[in-house]
Amino acid sequence: MSVEEATADLERDLEDFAWLRAVEEKTMIPKTVIASVLGLTSFVIMYVVAGPGLLCNLVGFVYPAYASFKAIETEQKDDDTQWLTYWVVYAVFNLVETFAGIILFWFPFYYSFKFGFLIWLFLPNVRGAQYLYSNFILPMFLQQEKRFGEAMERLASGNDFDELDAEDDDEDEDSYEGKKTR
User: Fold this and answer.
1) Of 4, 85, 92, 94, which sees the most CB atoms within 10 A?
2) Contact 23/37 with Cβ under 8 angstroms?
3) Among the ranges 14-23, 103-112, 136-145, which has the highest mean pLDDT value?
4) Secondary structure (DSSP) of 17-39
5) Distance between CA atoms of residues 95 and 100, nearest Å
6) How is the chain split into domains, by residue range?
């Protein structure tokens, strides 16, 4: 998608906002400029007030969720694949970040890099998520697919958890009996 096409799409989307059309007529400033200034101002306010973590989460969720809803409603399969790939990569990234977060948060400009990384993942003309998925996640998954499948089957069947549940029930009864006799 070219810049001109993206601008035309934005113009069409902004036509739905009557208040924005009124501001454009009074100020003679194009709707796209007004929306961009408002978006940038909101970005700076959220960054200062709520912090960069919230801003990164919003970038990682809001636009991709919106684009995913739009992709579901189209007949094309390519956009569905793009957004499913994004969500898989995003899930893996969040899993890694959960465990490495204690170290990562000490790096200067971590959230700036995370912000840029998330945008790189979902931009349609870059397809960063597709690159990471094809070159890193898929090969690793294919290598471990059998082990992963077995673990999921055990988890789904609940067999491994029956013994633990029985032990927990026995402990609960013992502690209840102990309280009753006191």
Assistant:
1) 85
2) no
3) 136-145
4) -HHHHHHHHHH---HHHHHHHHH
5) 9
6) 1-49, 51-181
